[in-house]
Amino acid sequence: MQKNQLTWMIGGPQGSGINASAEVFAKACSRAGLRIYANIEYHSNIMGKHSFYRVRVGDEDVRSYRDKTDILVALDHETLAGDGDHRRWPTHYGHLHEVNEGGGVIYDGEIGFDIAGGRTDLHFRAVPFMELIKKALEEVGKGEQARRYEVMKNTVGLGASLALCDYPFDLVAEVIRSQFKGKRSEVGELNVRAARLAFEYVKEHFDTSKFPYTLKPYPEPKARIVAKGYEIHAIAKLKAGCAFQTYYPISPATDESVFLERQQRDYNLLVVQCEDEISSINMAVGAAHMGVRASTATSGPGFALMVEGIGFASITEAPGPVLILYQRGGPSTGMPTRQEQGDLQFALHPAQGDFPHLVIAPGDLRECYQDTFSAFNWAERYQMPIIVLSDKKLASVYTTIDKLELMYDQIDRGEIFTGSEWTPVAAKGPNDQGTQAPGHNGNGHKLDLANVKEYLRYALTD
Description:
Number of domains: 3
Distance between the termini: 72 Å
Structural class: alpha/beta
CATH topology of the largest domain: Pyruvate-ferredoxin Oxidoreductase, domain 3
Number of helices: 13
Strand content: 15-25%
Shape: elongated
Largest sheet: 8 strands, mixed
């Protein structure tokens, strides 16, 4: 029997709510004192394509996922067996082969999956998803609307999997309710009821005592942060005093700017969605020149459009901006929702010629927090653009963090111009003796410098 060491996976078509169920499960585990590390893999469309979400749970700090899973929740046939039954060339072969020996498989009994001739070392549990949803709706007089609430299959699968690993249901019910507040609280209660019916169904119809993986909450759990990578980048910007953020929507960078948009009223921040990436970088450069801590965020294709603006920021010695580059699969549009770390050379040499700029590459979320914060200090201290190399994996990871701490937490704005540094200096030169040798201004007009009353130039004193 393995306790509090578990990888849980849910798969289904996009739009079926797998991310909601996975994050409810992750939050419930975190609130119970366990540590989690979760990530989602999805296609670059809105509905229909296969996606899956992994949640790894452990007693100690977890900083990566495992390819193998202990519990698989399948909302459709494709999650189990792949797409070879309806495609000439399969793109994947499902996730059954990724389930560890002795693991459990929760699947919808209506999908027609035949376990005969398959793996005999797994605990297959067929659950009537729609039947349980209809039963939950009948209790509130909405039984005829079952198809309208089909999306609740994700909660049914979650509830059934909790029974399999013997996890207390009430901890998850509390998190579900917290997701549905106000007018949506009724929907939250329906989800809780559907999940509970699934939990009870598995307990009544199957022997769960022989399942080798269990989860148990800590009696006195510690409070921990549960956050995604793009949120950590955004929080670091707020901590650093970022006052101006520009962006043009592009995966996976958009989530950071959307998060900051929700915070701008509380943190004296302006977030501008521009017409394109060229505008985004140039507006950020202009703001930096005006003394504002400015930033932008993009991915590979957007970064390709920003290169002239980055060169302009460097040659004009702008104190920024800070640019978060969320790397993804390339080239060109490439694979917008897939992981790749292929932009290092591009970030080192982004425009024509060679020019000073910094490139920082954090390795985990704790480094993302420190490096993004420090990037604003370096931008203003050394008056140059700063590129922070993130990626899709760091952006979408959902994990527990004991505490967000900065080893270097001082804001350093470099040398600040106050006005007192300017000292008038008399403009005397070889042509400045009376009217003997008249000088000329930049337009070629002659003038007698000896008779000019105003100071012609000023100099910065050390």
